[in-house]
Amino acid sequence: MTTVEAQPVEATLIRRPMFVEVVASRLLTPHLRRITVTGAELDRFAYEGPDQLARIFLAPAPDVELHLPDSEQWWPGIQAMPAELQPVVRNYTVRRLDAGRREMDIDFVLHGDGGPASAWARRAAPGDRIGVLSDGADYAPPADTDWQLLVGDETALPAITAAIEALPPDARAIALIEVGSAEDEIEVRTPVGVTLTWLHRGDTQAGGSDVVIRTLRELALPAGTPYAFVAGESTMVTTVRRHLCTERRIAKERVYFAGYWKVSAH
Exposed/middle/buried for 214, CB within 10 Å: 0-12, 13-18, 19+? Predict the structure, then answer.
């Protein structure tokens, strides 16, 4: 469940990198690991919505101490560091923030050691340190929305599930989430009016399946004014947006889309 406590009026939200420490790490599925971190400043982490972006900062090598920029101008700060000390930066979605307990959950899709974040998450243990930076959120259904369509792959799983769990009891929504197989599904608390469908791509490589667009083309959408949130692999996201805006005639301003990653050209 997403937990976000109200910030005290006098609290100053922090929009610079902050150190956090791993307190727990567990597998949710064979390919998804949840890392729980804590930090003295997490009660002032600026949380704006279910798809809250957190830039994470990793040490450039296992035997190198992590250094963080000390201001909101974090990119120039990194560039000013010696090359061998510059942290690795990646983008992730905050799955849960408990400001009162100064705890945050971040879910990592595991794909071996092919990327620095996956490699780190596979071995993360209590006491390990990373940096996190609040960098905005875009999920924002207009007030006149009658129903929502939430579409994504496993990289959008934290944003979509957090959005579902934040919906009011009377909300209507359809969620389509692409994963490898049934073993990659997780339990999600859904309001009565929300339909969550897991789409399995099987042996097809992530980013290479058309299961999302095939399912969407066969789907009967509700009447009324929609809001669509589409995130995940870039080509899939673009294809879905084109379908919604061109074939379904949904106004472009009512479709938010974000390419979280792109299949490497090989």
Answer: exposed
Detail the DSSP E strand segments found in the chain.
Answer: 18-29, 32-38, 53-58, 88-98, 103-109, 129-134, 147-153, 173-179, 194-200, 226-233, 255-261
Provide the domain limits for residue 39: 18-134
Query: For the whole model, what pTM was predicted?
Result: 0.91
Mean pLDDT in residue range 35-40: 98
The verdict on residue 10 lying in a domain is: no
Q: How many whole angstroms separate alpha carbon 219 and alpha carbon 216?
A: 5
The predicted structure's pLDDT at residue 131: 98
Tell me which of 95, 112, 134 is where a domain ends.
134
In this predicted model, what pLDDT tens digit does every residue of 197-226 receive, in sequence order? Answer: 999 999 998 899 999 999 999 999 999 999
User: Is the pLDDT confidence value at 185 over 70?
Assistant: yes
Give the Cα separation of 22 and 206 in Å (integer): 28
**What is the 3-class SS of 122-167, one letter each residue?**
HHCCCCCEEEEEECCCCCCCCCCCCEEEEEEEHHHHHHHHHHHHHC
Same domain, 176 and 75: no
Closest CA to 108 of 154, 46, 61: 154
Last residue of a domain, one of 73, 100, 134: 134
